[in-house]
Amino acid sequence: MDNTLHSEMVNLARATDRREHMKAELAKAGVTTTMHPAVDCREVSEDEIYAQVMLEGPWGYMHPPAAACTVSHMLLWERFLKTDKTHCLILEDDIHMSSELGDWVADLGWWPEDADIVKLERWRGKTLKLLLDQSAPEYMGRRIARMYNRHVGSAGYIINRHAAEVLLAQRPLPMTVDNLLFNINASPAACRLAIYQIQPALVVQGNEPPGWVQPPTAKYRPEGWMLLRQKLKRAYYEVAYPLATWRKLITGAAKLEPVTYVDIANGGSAPAHPSSHPTIGADPAQNDI
After folding, report:
1. CA distance linking residue 153 with residue 188, whole number of Å
2. What is the bridge-based pairing of β-strands 60-61 and 156-160?
3. What is the mean pLDDT of residues 63-71?
4. In what order do the strands lie in the sheet containing 87-92?
């Protein structure tokens, strides 16, 4: 592990099966990380959670599990800034990892000079495409491409200290963690940061312990005027890209493309049947397009 890199995995204290499963998976990928207990909305009151995040922000309503997950990442950024490390690897506890992930984090010599965040993850939404720079450099058979439109998912990414400071300056956080990180139009933080995507990705969600069963979860959806406000906000931000972004698309300097996940070291394999279950606090209705 690069000695300039702080590394943590988000994991609920009660999720011991996931924790033990991920320890074995991390060892296979050659990644060393710590697991600090995530904020659990079963244990922490909504008043405490919503003191640190907004109930409603630029992307709409934030339900309690998503809010708890967002606070977990926020506290992780704070811990990172208390270290002397320059970068922080953040993972969630239900991921498939490429076997060369350890090589990527062992030496950050590939890190783009202007990058604030590098997203390692592929989101499993079938319709999602990213506008990626076409002059991106390659490292170990993968492109490191500047990203110009909205992405979702927070299961695998690296940030630098500047990114952590910009993100924390938004408190109380106005959006779910993945939208705050990667929703370039709507996020007051993402629009100020240089964000890159590894293509093909090194991480994808859906790696649950053997025999794991999704527990029943409450359905959260705004109603009435709150739902209408959310729809209107999202419709606006889906098209409100700056002229420079449209120019990159029109000229071909950047192209829309699906992000894939492959394990190059193992012959380009991908998970055969990735789970459809959400990660801690994730909300497919909020995040996917």
Report:
1. 17
2. unpaired
3. 95
4. 34-37, 5-11, 87-92, 156-160, 117-119, 195-199, 142-146, 138-139
Work out whether strand 121-122 and strand 203-205 pair parallel, antiparallel, or are unpaired. Answer: parallel
Phi/psi-derived region of residue 286, left when phi > 0, alpha when psi is between -120 and 50, beta in every other case = alpha
Token pair recorded at residue 110: 């590939």
By percentage, how much of the chain surpasses pLDDT 90? Answer: 78
Q: Which residue has the tokens 């959670």?
A: 49
Peptide bond into 215 cis (omega under 30): no
Annotation: CATH topology of 5-210+220-287? Spore Coat Polysaccharide Biosynthesis Protein SpsA; Chain A (3.90.550)
The pLDDT of residue 220: 78
Give the residue-averaged pLDDT of 197-202. 97
Please state, in angstroms and rounded to a whole number, the distance separating the CA atoms of residues 256 and 15. Answer: 37
> What is the signed CA dihedral for 279, 261, 241, 60, rounded to 10 degrees?
-10
Is 4 or 278 the better-scoring residue by pLDDT? 4
SS3 category, 248: helix
Here the tokens at position 6 are 């702080």
